[in-house]
Design brief:
The chain has 348 residues and is α+β, with helices and mostly antiparallel strands. The chain folds into 2 domains: 98 residues, Phosphorylase Kinase, domain 1; 227 residues, Aminoglycoside 3'-phosphotransferase, Chain: A, domain 2. Strands 1-2-3-5-4 form a 5-stranded antiparallel sheet, sandwiched between helices. β7 and β8 form a beta hairpin. α8 packs antiparallel against α11 and α9 crosses α11. The longest helix is centred in the C-terminal third of the chain and has 27 residues. It is globular, with a radius of gyration of 21 Å. 36% of the residues are buried.
């Protein structure tokens, strides 16, 4: 067995041996290509000499919280959803033996499709593909929220009640630990969100980061696989709907949260169309959706402020000394909080 390369985050020899045990069709040597990194879990495309392809996911390099970037949890969720009508990549196996690769990892099949990360990718789709993807993103979200938790063995994935209250506490705590400046409006929106929490219905799976660029599309625009389940838990499904609205842009939008503006192109449905379709399929009351939109903007502001704090604190190496290089993040936080305030204003 010959190691094909040296790649940061992968012990090629040991991981290849793991593949030979868990993926009988593998034909070494293996090639590893980092396709997603940063502060989230690291994702590698793995190919062999017979052009088989897989995806390997592992925690970021360096020190991480013991409960963060939980590979076993991600693997469990995706494996549990495999027999349902929620599209996910088939899992191959989970490795918790850190002597293999220095950290736990799991492997799933590589799903070949399109990820609409920005306007340029959206422009490669036909209007029919855009329309289909708009319908599919709603239909799949409704399927996620209709999964029978007991039937798939996920009823104990997290607490069922008080999802929004827990999320407000979590993200405000993260903000307090990382903030680099006073943001009175963020504090004010937090207080309003606490005061106005809607009554939660029965708990469902909550993806936590459901948006177009976390979905893999097929040639017809249908979703082939939902990606990035790392913050999935149980709770209020309307939080997913609100966050989808935050990331979904209508033509003429001027706002801080965009997916490169792809959904402004002809063929994509409008936000109101998405909401109408979700309500019809799920049967859920969306009269309080502005609350969940406000929460989505506010949560994203807390996350981006954390990114900004890490960058100006030197997380980007020498570039961290030039704090002005990261003013974009500071301005985005301000814009997100203002959008949250406006959404709250529509219900107060």
């Amino acid at each position: 067995m010959e190691a094909s390369q040296s790649v940061e985050g992968v012990d090629v020899d040991h991981v290849t041996a793991w593949f030979e045990t868990h993926a009988p069709e593998v034909r070494p040597s293996l090639h590893f290509e980092l396709i997603a990194g940063g502060h989230s879990n690291l994702t590698y495309r793995v190919t062999d000499e017979a052009d088989h392809a897989w995806v390997l996911r592992r925690p970021p390099l360096g020190q991480v919280l013991a409960t963060a970037h939980d590979m076993g949890r991600e693997h469990r969720i995706i494996s549990a959803l495999a027999p349902t009508d929620v599209p996910v990549a088939p899992t191959i196996g989970l490795c918790t033996d850190e002597s293999v690769n220095g950290a736990p990892f799991y492997v799933m099949d590589f799903v070949d499709g399109i990820v609409v990360r920005d306007l340029s990718v959206g422009e490669t789709l036909s209007e029919a593909q855009r329309h289909t993807s708009s319908e599919s993103i709603v239909d799949v979200l409704a399927r996620i929220h209709s999964v029978d938790l007991d039937a798939v063995g996920l009823a104990d994935l997290g607490r069922h009640e008080g999802y929004i209250e827990r999320q407000l506490k979590r993200w405000y705590g993260q903000f307090e630990k990382s903030k680099t400046r006073e943001l009175p409006m963020l504090d004010e929106v937090h207080q309003a969100l606490l005061r106005l929490v809607p009554a939660q219905g029965p708990a469902t799976i909550v993806h936590g980061d459901y948006r177009l660029d976390n979905c893999m599309l097929g040639p017809d625009g249908q979703i082939l696989a939902v990606l990035d389940w790392e913050i999935c838990t149980l709770g209020d499904p309307l939080a997913d709907v609100g966050l989808l609205m935050v990331y979904w842009n209508d033509p003429g939008d001027v706002g801080p949260a965009t997916v490169g503006g792809a959904t402004t192109l002809d063929g994509f449905l409008r936000r109101s169309d998405l909401l109408e379709r979700y309500a019809a399929i799920s049967g859920r009351d969306l009269s309080a959706i502005d609350y969940y939109v406000a929460f989505g903007y506010w949560k994203l502001a807390c996350i981006v402020e954390g990114v900004y704090a890490r960058y100006i604190g030197g997380a980007m190496g020498d570039r961290g000394a030039d704090t002005g290089a990261f003013d974009f993040f500071a301005e985005q936080v301000t814009g997100l909080v203002e959008s949250a305030r406006q959404a709250i204003g529509r219900i107060e």
